[in-house]
Amino acid sequence: MTAVLQVGNRTITAEEIISLLASYQMLPQFLCESIIDQAISPISCTPKEIANACQQFYQHCNLLSKTEQQTWLTRYGMSQKHLEDLTTRRLRIEKFKQATWGHKLESYFLKRKAQLDRVVCSLIRTKEPGIAQELYFRIQAEEQSFAEAARQFSQGLEAQTGGIIGPVEVGNLHPNLAQMLYVSQPGQLWPPKPVDGWLVIVRLEKLIPAQLNEFMRQRLLRELFEAWLQEQLQQLPESDRIWLAKAMPNPRSALVGSNLPAA
């Protein structure tokens, strides 16, 4: 058996690595990273980029002398080429994203824009039809402010903010609520509508259009990259996909994402 790593008093052998990755639930992550490595293998960095990446790594790990750097490489069984691959990996992933999807960002943004626009709205939710209808008429007739009615009667967290929610992306709202707000004019009050088990009174306060700035470009590149990775994972054998799903879950809150803001 070949010793590959010393952790405290424990010596980990090459023969143990796979079983340990599996038992520590790290093998699914290993599979993902391996897929990424294959994709970025043709991507290169300039000598200056490599030197900067290695230098930043040495500084971060407090490896200031050549001797310390070589000792670290020897300890982890790495060559200088391994280190260069490690330290430039994030940069090569970013280059891969840009080369693969950079030219598609404008069209992808336009496709996603309706979900990326943000809204500020006032909202009251209740499960009592009589109360919902009464509150709607009071607010419509300006007999009571929306904020006051929300504080007194709304049954979600929005009661603490006078009914105000947002800014929140339209795509993170329940589809029915999102549709109402997206076709609204600021100040438009909707009568009680059933949404996700509640009766909801909503008024659009402000629509904030999404913009294709640098932050948005990076976000969309990340979305496209993650979607691509999921497609690659779907090509794995079914047993591996089942394991991945259990080891790397992506839970969605019952009231966030495709629903109302959390109650």
Map the helices and strands.
Elements: E1 3-7, E2 10-13, H1 17-23, H2 27-40, H3 47-60, H4 66-75, H5 80-87, H6 89-101, H7 105-116, E3 118-126, H8 129-140, H9 146-153, E4 164-169, H10 175-182, E5 189-195, E6 198-208, H11 214-233, H12 238-247
Describe the protein's architecture and organization.
The chain is of the alpha+beta class and 263 residues long. Among the domains are: 16-101, no CATH class; 118-208, Chitinase A, domain 3 (Roll). It contains 12 helices and 6 strands. The strands form 2 sheets. The chain has a 4-stranded antiparallel β-sheet, with helices on both faces. α2 (27-40) crosses α6 (89-101). The longest helix is centred in the C-terminal third of the chain and has 20 residues, at 214-233.
